[in-house]
Amino acid sequence: MNLALPNDGLDAYHSKSQRARVATEQWGADSLFCMNCDSPTITRSRHGTPVIDYVCPRCEAPFQLKSQSKPLAARIVDAAYSAMKRAIDLDQTPNLFVMHYEPGEWLVRNLLLIPKFAFSLAALEKRKPLASTARRAGWVGCNIVLANIPPDARISIITEGRSRSPRAVREQYKKLRPLAKLQVGQRGWTLDTLNAIRSFGTNEFTLSEAYSLEPALAALHPDNHHVREKIRQQLQVLRDLGLLEFLGDGNYRLR
After folding, report:
1. β-sheet bridge partners, residue 61
2. What number of CA atoms fall less than 13 Å from residue 220's CA on the CB side?
3. Which of 229, 212, 158, 222 is nearest to 2 (CA)?
4. Residue 166's closest CA among 70, 41, 63?
5. Looking at the chain, which runs of residues are DSSP E strands?
6. What is the distance between the alpha carbons of residues 154 and 149, in angstroms, rounded to a whole number?
7. 137-183 pLDDT tens trace
């Protein structure tokens, strides 16, 4: 994968942000591939299409690209909170590429993919409304909190200037694709439970350890008053999806 951002025609743009936007979007059209199928390319969406930047020419999977010159941190700045919340509720989020590029070297340094079926409301953080003196006074944006997305669903494509093979990326995406079959409400619980289990830092755990996650999951789902029962249910769901293995006697292993 060519990590150099294109610079042809950038002299026509005076703003650094404009040059970066044009260069990163063109790089995506030249270099990105589809994870949902075996298409080696994705194509730009029609100009003015909200949220979606690229579409796979074979399977029509939608993609969005967000880029920044600073290293990827705990939060990714997104658009309007209400629009992103509605997209999650309606299961209309695109697959999201998150890029970190080096502005001096004009190179892609890191690139993550978050599958469209890996977003839960827990990953969405509402920002403060814009001040009354702002041009869009009262507008409320949001952040995507990466720590609230399971590590399994933060698929690394480029890490510190080293790219993975399309085959490896697609295999990781394929393992998570059963999540797309779940209804949106249930999927949020499943993602949050999986992410909480990952916080143990080990692949094997016990049912009693899973129950220790009750306060954290209750905070994410304050309207549910049967969290312990929900944890047991989600362990079954994760097992049925092939993401979890039941070892017997209250012992589990993440696959």
Report:
1. none
2. 24
3. 158
4. 41
5. 43-44, 54-55, 62-68, 75-80, 95-102, 107-114, 124-126, 141-145, 155-159, 162-163, 204-206, 244-248, 251-254
6. 7
7. 999 999 999 999 999 999 999 999 999 999 999 999 999 999 999 99
Amino acid, single-letter form, for residue 174 = K
E strands of 73-172, at which residues?
75-80, 95-102, 107-114, 124-126, 141-145, 155-159, 162-163
Domains assigned to the chain: 10-177 (3.40.210.30), 185-254 (1.10.10.10)
Q: Name 233's Cβ contacts closer than 8 Å, sequence gap at least 6.
A: none
pLDDT tens, residue by residue, 47-66 = 766 779 999 999 999 999 99
Give the ranges where 61-165 is alpha helix by DSSP (H): 81-89
What are the distances in angstroms from CA 193 to CA 11, 120, 187, 229?
A: 49, 11, 10, 12
SS3 state at 246: strand
Q: In what order do the strands lie in the sheet with 244-248?
A: 204-206, 251-254, 244-248
| DSSP conformational letter for 4 | B
With contact defined as beta carbons under 8 Å apart, do 15 and 21 qualify? Answer: no
Rounded to two decimals, the pTM is: 0.91
**At which residue do the structure tokens 């507008």 appear?**
139
Q: Enter the tokens of residue 100.
A: 């970190």
Count other C-beta atoms under 10 Å from residue 202's C-beta. Answer: 10
**What CA–CA distances, in Å, run from 158 to 45, 88, 168, 238?**
23, 26, 12, 28
